[in-house]
Amino acid sequence: MNGLGLLNVLAAAAPNEVSPVVPLIILAVGIAVVIGMIVVLRIHAFLALITAALIVSLLAPGDLTEKISRVAAAFGSTAGKIGIVIAMAAVIGRCLIDSGAADRVVRMFMRLLGEKRAPISLMTSGFVLSVPVFFDTVFYLLMPLARSMHRRTGQKYLSLILTMGAGASITHSLVPPTPGPLYIASDMGIDVGIMILIGLAVAIPTAAVILFFIRWLTRNMDIPMRPIEGAGPEPEPLPDDKLPGLLVSLLPIILPVILISLNTITSTAADAEHAGRIRSDSVSNWPNFCTALVDNSNDQGAPAQYIMTRLSEESRALVRNVAAATTVAPENETALQDAFSVLIGRKDFYDERAFAGVTLTGEAEELKAEGVARANLAKVEHFNRLVLEAAFGDYIEPHTWMTPRRKATKFTGLIGNPNLALLASAAIALFVMWKQRRPSRVELGKIVESALMSGGVIILITSAGGAFGAMLQKAQVGDAIRGLFASAIGAEVQGLSLIFLAFFIAFLLKFAQGSSTVSMMTTSGIMVAMIANMDLSFHPVYLAASIGFGAQCGNWMNDSGFWIFAKMGGLTEIETLKTWTVTVSSMAIIGLLFTALFATLFPLVGAAG
Questions:
Q1: Tens of pLDDT along 351-398?
Q2: I need a labelling partner for 330 at 20 to 30 A (CA). Which of 102, 212, 542, 608 fits?
Q3: Angle at 376 between CA 370 and CA 382, to 5 degrees
Q4: How far is it, in rounded angstroms, from Cα 232 to Cα 489?
Q5: Residue 568: φ, ψ to 5°
Q6: Which residues neighbour 365 within 8 Å (Cβ) at sequence distance 6 or greater?
C-alpha cells in the first residue's frame, strides 16, 4: 500500500469511534519521523517537529481542509503561552550575566552554603520556586545563575543544570497550586492542604535521592557549557567592587516570583470561598423548592426530572420528605445543602438537553464557552449555580461571585501575569546592566537583539513541539491508551497495585502526547472511575502523587520542557535524551517508590473523604 493509501485508510477509519490500533500506529509514525529526522538525518529540530506535526495531523481524524491549519493554530497557541515569557527571559538572562548580577547572587550562595553545595542551592531554589511559578519560568530565571556558578566554582555544568531542573520538575507535578496537581485534587475530592502536605512529603526524599543519582550519572559525562544558540559571547566576570548590589541583582529574579505568587495566593483564597455552593441563605423556601422538584420529576426532559435522577437515593427520599412537610428540620436543611453542593460541584452536571428551555445569563454563557471541563472546582460550582438560578429562579437566590477576595484577583491577575511580570523584570535587568556596563544605545540595542535572537530559536522549537503534542491529541492517542485500560475498571486491581497502575497510565499518556497536565487530567478521570466503588486501604492522595510522578516520566521530544532544557542548556538532542530524559524518568520512578512506601506506612485512611 502506498503512502496515500495508508493516509486514506487511517483518515477514514471509524469517524465517530476510532479503533485503538489506529492512534497507536499514528503515534509510532510520529515518533519515527521525529527521531529519524533529528538523529539520523541531522535536520534542525524545528523542521523535524513541525514536519511530524503535519504528518500526524494528516493521519488523524478530522476535516481534510483543516488538517494543516490546525497545526498552525496549535503552533500559535503554544507560542502565545510561552513566546513573551521566553523572549523576556532571554533578555533577563543576558543582562544578569553581562551586568554581573548573576555573579553577585552566586557569590552570595557560595558564602552561605559553600562551593561544594552549589547543586543543593540550585535544586532547593528550583524546588521552592516551582510551587507557585511554572517550571519553564523558573528554569529561565535560574539558568544564568547556573552558568555563573559553573564559571565561578568549576563544578560540572551538567550536574548544576540537572539538579536545578530536577528540583523545579518535582514540585511542578506534585504540589498545588500548580494546575496539574490542583486539578487532580479537585477531580478526586482531595483536600488541597492534604495534597500539598503529601506532595511535599514524597517530593523531599525524592529530591534528596535524585541529587545523588545526578552525581553518579554525570560522573563520567563531560558536557561543557556552550554558548546559547544565537547569543553573543559572555563577558569576563567583574571584581567584587564592580558588581551590582545584592538587592538589585536579585530583583529581576524574585520580582516575577513575588508577583506571580501574589496572584496565586489571592486566587487560591478567592476559590476557597466556594461562593457558588448552596448555603442556608441560598434557597428562599426549601419545602417549596422540594415540592417543585417532586411535582415535575415525572416530566421527561424537565430540569427537575434531571436533577432528581442525579441525586442519590437517600437525597431523593429527603427531597420527597421535605416536600411533604411544611417546615424543614435544621439537620435536613444541612443535608440538602450538602447534597446540592456536591451536585453542582460536578463537571458533568450541566446537560444541554435537560436545560434546553433554560435561558442562561451572559456570564454563564461565557463560562460555558471557556469550557467547564477545564475549570477549577470554584468556577464549576459558580457555573452550575448560575444554571440552577436560571432554572429555578423562584427558589434559588442569586449568589455573589465578585466578593472582595475575587475583586482582588482582578488586580493581582494583571500584575501577576507572567508576561507582564517578566517584562517588568526585563526592564530592571536592562537598567542594572546599563548602569554597570554603560553601553551606548547602539551597543544596548545589539545586546537586546542578540538575546531575542537566541530566544526566538527556542520559541520556534518549543512551539513546534507543542504543535506535535497537540496533533497527537487530535489523533486520539490518549483515548486509545485510555481504552486499553478500560477493561481494568472494575477488575481485581486493588491495594498498592492501583498506585503502580496510575503511574503507568500517566507515563504512557505523557510519553504519547507530551503534556504533563493533559496526562494528569486524563489519568485522574480513569482512576476516579476505577475507584468509585472501592474501599481503598490508603488515602487517594497517594494515587494523585503517583499520577503526578507518572506524568513526569518519559519526557522526550514531544514535550516543550525537553527543548527548553536542551536549548537553554546548550545540549544536543542526544545529550538531552541521555541526561534530562533519564534524570526526570528516574526521578519519577524513585518518587513512585516513595509514594508506595508512604501509602504503606502512613495510609491516612481516617483522613480520607
A1: 888 888 888 889 888 888 887 776 778 888 999 999 999 989 889 999
A2: 608
A3: 75
A4: 56
A5: -70, -30
A6: none
**Do residues 333 and 280 lie in contact, with contact meaning Cβ atoms separated by under 8 Å?**
yes
Measured between alpha carbons, how far is 27 from 468 in angstroms, rounded to an integer?
Answer: 10
CA distances from 208 to 120, 126, 129, 489 (A): 9, 13, 17, 35
Q: Which of 7, 10, 28 is nearest to 19 (CA)?
A: 10
Tell me whether residue 27 is in a domain.
yes
Whether 387 and 218 have beta carbons less than 8 Å apart is answered as no
Beta bridge partners of 283: 396
Where does a domain end: 19, 52, 75? 75
Mean pLDDT across the stretch 33-46?
Answer: 80
Query: What digits encode the pLDDT tens for the residues 433-478?
Result: 898 888 888 988 888 888 888 778 778 877 887 788 788 878 887 6
Query: How many domains are contained in the chain?
Result: 2
Cα(84)–Cα(456) distance, integer angstroms: 10
Give DSSP secondary structure letters for 375-402.
Answer: S-HHHHHHHHHHHHHHHSTTTBPP---S
Which ranges in 538-581 belong to alpha helices (H)? Answer: 541-550, 560-569, 573-576
Are 242 and 100 a contacting pair, CB within 8 Å?
yes
Encode 465-522 in three state secondary structure. HHHHHHHHHHCCHHHHHHHHCHHHCCCCCCCHHHHHHHHHHHHHHHHHHCCHHHHHHH
User: Exposure of 376 by Cβ count < 10 A (0-12 exposed, 13-18 middle, 19+ buried)?
Assistant: middle
In a domain, 540, yes or no: no
Instruction: Please give the Cα distance from 511 to 505 (Å, whole number).
Output: 10
Contact 47, 459 (CB under 8 A): no
Last residue of one domain, picked from the residues 35, 58, 75:
75
CB 528 within 8 A of CB 488: no
CB contact at 8 A, 604 and 541: yes
- For residue 15, the enclosing domain spans 3-75
**517 close to 183: Cβ distance less than 8 angstroms:** yes
Instruction: Determine, yes or no, domain membership for 223.
Output: no
The 3-state DSSP composition of the chain as helix, strand, coil percent (nearest 5) reads 70, 0, 25
In a domain, 219, yes or no: no
